[in-house]
Specification:
By secondary structure, the protein is mostly loops. 0% of the residues lie in helices and 3% in strands. The termini are far apart.
């Protein structure tokens, strides 16, 4: 008998038609029957923009039991509700389980999940055994009133198309135990009104393809506990009010072409001075020399001048 069915009708009166509201009671009267639907809004005159609070007039199928209620359906079940639905569990837990299948929740005007009421603390846990995917086609607002912790056991890819603003009011610590690559295809501006300290316990390479400008308003100190090399494949220009260089050992300078120096006064104090030159040209208006011991050795020496005054205490010819 595949088309057999059973209908249970409890009319209001003995002469009420079957289309009128009926009432099925299982047990004694409950005070909850006065508010069957609570906290819902219903559409007025089929206009989604006009809503009002949904109230009941106890017309329809009303069921109550002071014991358990169980429904077992081995086939497909369909429930269509036209005005609204409220499921309230007053004392106990609620579970919705789909052991073999998927669960879809669709809401046209919004979806809200709330844990905790009246100031109590409660958690929301979402667990996925494979992939967790969120698609947001509009704006996103996230507010966290406590600590935040995130762990990613895999690769992370982030793509921002627009302006990103980050404000940190506190300490920030970043630990990278692998290679770090950062690329900027545009302008990069860093403005800091604080002290900055950078410590590197390994090699550090910096490559700039273009112009580089460093402006320091204050003192600039650089200390190298090792060798220091600088190579300029072009002109090297240096301007300073005063320049002081202190060397502990030797100073070597190699200029294969020209070495030009223009100074107001050139003073040099040394214990031993050695000069070796293939050609030497000197031109000056005033030349003053004072020596205690002068030793000159030359194969050919020529001196030409208009006036020459030489004062010597002793001359030794060998």
């Amino acid at each position: 008998m595949p088309d057999a069915y059973t209908r249970l009708v409890v009319p209001e009166t003995l002469v009420s038609p079957l289309t009128k509201s009926t009432y099925l009671r299982l047990g004694s009267y409950s005070s909850e029957e006065a508010n069957i639907v609570t906290g819902l809004t219903a559409v007025i005159n089929e206009d989604p923009a006009v809503t009002s609070k949904r109230e009941t007039d106890n017309a329809g199928i009303l069921a109550f039991t002071n014991k358990d209620f169980q429904a077992n359906v081995e086939g497909v079940a369909l429930m269509k509700i036209g005005r609204g639905q409220t499921t309230e569990v007053t004392n106990g837990n609620s579970q919705h389980m789909v052991p073999k299948g998927t669960c879809d929740i669709s809401a046209e005007n919004g979806l809200s999940l709330t844990a905790g009421a009246n100031g109590t603390f409660a958690d929301i846990t979402l667990t996925a055994s494979n992939r967790f995917k969120i698609i947001n086609k509009g704006s996103k607002s996230e507010t966290n009133g406590g600590d935040s912790e995130r762990q990613t056991m895999g690769n992370t890819t982030e793509f921002f198309q627009g302006t990103k603003y980050t404000c940190m009011r506190g300490a920030a610590t970043t630990l990278t135990m692998a290679r770090n690559l950062c690329m900027h295809f545009g302008e990069s501006l860093t403005f800091k009104v604080s002290r900055e300290c950078s410590i590197n316990f390994s090699d550090m390479n910096s490559v700039t393809i273009g112009n580089k400008l460093d402006i320091v308003k204050g003192n600039g100190i650089k200390q190298v506990n090792g060798n220091s090399a600088k190579s300029v494949l072009g002109r090297n220009y240096k301007s300073a009010d005063s320049d002081t260089k202190i060397l502990r050992r030797s100073d070597f300078k190699l200029a294969p072409v020209d070495d030009l120096k223009s100074v107001g006064r050139d003073s040099k104090l040394c214990k031993t001075s050695v000069s070796v030159s293939q050609e030497e040209l000197r031109s000056g208006k005033v030349n003053t020399e004072r020596h205690e011991l002068v030793s000159r050795v030359a194969d050919i020496m020529s001196s030409t001048g208009n006036e020459e005054v030489i004062q010597k205490k002793s001359v030794i010819f060998v």
